[in-house]
Amino acid sequence: METNKKKLTTASGIPYAENENSMTVGPRGPILLQDFILHEKMAHFNRERIPERVVHAKGSGAYGTFTVTHDISKYTRAKLFNTIGKETKTFLRFSTVGGEKGSADTERDPRGFALKFYTEEGNWDLVGNNTPVFFIKDPKKFGDFIHTQKRDPYTNCKSATMMWDFWSLNPESLHQVTILMSDRGTPYGYRHMDGFGSHTFSMINANNERHWVKFHFKTEQGIKNFTDEEAGAMRGTNPDFAQHDLLTHIDKGDFPKWKLKIQVMTEEQAKTYKWNPFDLTKVWPHADFPLIDVGVLELNQNPDNYFAHVEQSAFAPAHVVDGVGYSPDKMLQGRLLSYPDAHRHRLGGNYEQIPVNRCPFAVNNYQRDGQMRVDGNHGSGPNYFPNSFDDIVADESYKEPAWDLGTGLADWYDRNAEGENDHYTQPGNLYRLMTEEAKYDLVKNIVHSMSGIDGPKKELITNRQLCHWFRADIGLGMAIAKGLQVDMDEAMKNMAVHA
Ligand code: HEM
């Protein structure tokens, strides 16, 4: 039968005559092995799942445009920043952290803010969160920490006991825990929150001079959070609230925007600043390092297929472009190795050829072959370096200036040794900055969460954490202790033990 309609085909393009009935020996007989399409359909279905991200499994993403609004060429030679008005295509994936791919969007959790800039000198991934700090400051603790945010190995349930046990044993977490327990821990979707590069990075200018920088994305939609109760209710009514909110606003042309700003510190300032500038549990107060305008990020295109673009996107903090560099932040250093390793496991060795991850500009190297090599494999060109046939060279002009960090001997240094162990001033300052209403919500949320601590170590864990709140701010500690109905004499004794 001739028809103008598109023909149903096998994956190899062969038109197929029958798609709903398997071929059988007689109407009630067994199925014939030669019904190849039946096998192809079942076999492909069985292979639809790929590993979900080990963290940040639930997410939403969109394409957008970054536009330069201010000249920062005195800090960076990065081509994407070199002209006011210059536009660079981007892809941004938001996420929660601890939940599985099907978990609710309004869980109390930090939110991922992973941004890919498709620049003319390669893809730059700025893989940040909606918070300027993190729970730990050494990558060796990351796996242990994440285990406490996931499911208990026995109950297979989330466990307040595990979380508060880890946090109370790692007081460097207090700053991030204070943010997490405030209403910033339950943002109203992804459009109404800020994003942060969080780590200290570097910028290198045309004179090969280095500055240390922090990246901030300020929401133009205004900050809006759920209260604990609202977030809990939304988990039941629309677990995909943030996905739906982002998608529908972009679909109707209400494009969300963020202003990119940076903080800048000179190498000289870094040597003497009161806080270790490479400690991810600390901020650089704006009073000391004011925000400098850079540009605007706008999300303006929903991907037409979630799996192809959002699920297969892969971001790596190691991927920086000329003019932007790393810093000695130990967490950043650990992440440089971890992400491409995770992508090779999750998506395969050629993950950078998947369209959402592919650099739209030239990619020249001698990496060849491997599963799912789909880009032509560099054709008949030579597959070794150096060679006498092509004219591909390593360009020394991209070299960064050497680092003079005066860091001393190689050893396992305690991240919380004398001089690095003030985990209390910044969270205390943050609390004291809050409005009375925000203070009330923070205490209520902490009391709610800490009430979940259970089991034989309940008292030990509760008192150990209370001791940290007291050290941050006596009023905060008192309010939480009151909410938890803790015996204050016991708590004070405990404070003496842990002091
Ligand atoms: C995702 C490791 C700290 C933000 C991931 C993934 C791994 C990982 C393995 C999954 C990657 C994938 O399968 O695609 C680590 C390690 C850390 C660390 C080892 C510490 C040493 C951080 C910090 C931030 C962060 C400090 C934010 C400042 C993210 C984000 C994603 C992610 C946003 C999701 C990226 C996406 O949307 O695909 N992390 N992480 N991580 N991480 Fe981390």
UniProtKB/TrEMBL annotation:
GO terms for molecular function: catalase activity; heme binding; metal ion binding. SMART domains: Catalase. GO terms for cellular component: cytoplasm. PROSITE patterns: CATALASE_2, CATALASE_3. It catalyses: 2 H2O2 = O2 + 2 H2O. Pfam families: Catalase, Catalase-rel. It is an enzyme of class 1 (oxidoreductase). The active site is at H56, N129. Heme binds at Y339. CDD domains: catalase_clade_3 (cd08156). Keywords: Heme, Hydrogen peroxide, Iron, Metal-binding, Oxidoreductase, Peroxidase. InterPro entries: Catalase, Catalase_3, Catalase_AS, Catalase_clade1/3, Catalase_core, Catalase_immune_responsive, Catalase_sf. Residues 9-393 form the Catalase core domain. It comes from the Bacteria. Its EC number is 1.11.1.6. Belongs to the catalase family. This is catalase. The lineage of its organism: Bacteria, Pseudomonadati, Bacteroidota, Sphingobacteriia, Sphingobacteriales.
